[in-house]
Amino acid sequence: MGAEVVVENLSKSFGKQAIWRDVTLTLPPGEVSVLLGPSGTGKSVFLKSMIGLLKPDRGRCVVNGVDIVRCSERRLYETRKLFGVLFQDGALFGSMNLYDNVAFPLREHTRKSETEIRKIVLEKLEMTGLSGAEKKLPGEISGGMRKRAGLSRALVLDPEIILCDEPDSGLDPVRTAYISQLLVDLNAQIDATILIVTHNINVARTVPDNIGMLFRKELVMFGPREVLLTSDEPVVEQFLNGRVRGPIGMSEEKDSAQMALEKARAAAGHHDGSAEDVRGIVPQLQPTPGLPERKGARRRKDRVMTILHTLPPAARQGIVASLTPRERFHYGLAEHDAEGYGRISGTVPTQP
C-alpha cells in the first residue's frame, strides 16, 4: 500500500513574493488525488517542495514518520526513493534511448545486476504500453510516448508515492484519456498513493478520489471528490466550469471593480460566453476490465462513510447515490435513505 503524506502549515516564498502559505492536507494512502488551480498558483512548486527539491519556509511534510522539511540530507535521500515523479516534459535524457532512460534510476540507486535491471525495465515499459520501443530516442517519439516513458522511469524503484506534474499538458484529448486510464490502472496494480497536478477539468472530474484547489496563495479546499464537484464556492465553481465570470482573472485574482462589473452584467442578463454549468458528480474512471479492483477506492469509500455526516448535503447525496444495495446494507443505510441519515452507527463495519 502507498504511503500517507501529511502536510501541515506548509508555506513557500521566493524573496518577498509568497507563493502559497499554510497549506494543510493529507494524501490518504493508496488513493488518487488531484491538485487544481489557475496558472501561477505554485502547483509545481508544491510538488517540488514535497520531495525536498525546494525548501519550504515553514511547516511540515511527513512521509513514513520523516519530516522532509527538517530531516538530514541522508534521510531525505532515502525518503525520496519512496517517490516516483513524472515531470511535465518527461525529463528524459535526449542522448539515451528509452531503455537506458528507464534503467537510469536502477543503475544510480541500486546494485542490481544488468539481468535484473533488464527484467524490471521491460516490465515497466510493458505496463505503460511501450513494449518494443526501448531502442528509440526521445526525439524519435511522440509527446504522449515521452510522457509514458517518463512514467515508466518513475515506476522502476517501485515507489509508494507517484507525483505527476500536468501529465496531460501538450496532449490531445485521446492521449490525455489514455494517460488518465493508465494512472487509474497503475493504482489498481500497485496501490501507490498518487497526486496529479492538472488544469484539465475532465481529468479532475473523472480520475481522482480526492480534489484540492490552490488560489490566492492558499489551499481553498481539499477533500473527497464529491465535495468539490458539488461545491458552490465561487472559485471552485468558476474553475470547474471554465467560466469567465468569477474571482479568477488573467493574472489570477480579479479586483473588486471587475467583480462588481461582472455581477451587474449578470444581473442585467448578459451571458459571459462560458459553457453551461456542469457542476455535479460524474462516474469515476474504473480500471481496465481484467485488472483488480482498486484497493484505494475501497479504503476511500470506508473512510468517506465515517465522515459522511460532516459533508455538505449535495456531496452526501452524491456519495450515497453511488452505493450499490449491498454497500448500503454494509454501511448501515436504509434503502430509501438518499442522504446518509440512516447510518446505524458512526463506525464502518469490517469488510464482508
TrEMBL record:
CDD domains: ABC_Org_Solvent_Resistant (cd03261). GO terms for molecular function: ATP binding. This is ABC transporter ATP-binding protein. Signal peptide: none annotated. PANTHER family: INTERMEMBRANE PHOSPHOLIPID TRANSPORT SYSTEM ATP-BINDING PROTEIN MLAF (PTHR43023:SF6), PROTEIN TRIGALACTOSYLDIACYLGLYCEROL 3, CHLOROPLASTIC (PTHR43023). The keyword Protease does not apply. SUPFAM superfamilies: P-loop containing nucleoside triphosphate hydrolases. Coiled coil: none annotated. Residues 5-241 form the ABC transporter domain. InterPro entries: AAA+_ATPase, ABC_transporter-like_ATP-bd, ABC_transporter-like_CS, P-loop_NTPase. Keywords: ATP-binding, Nucleotide-binding, Transport. The keyword Transport applies.
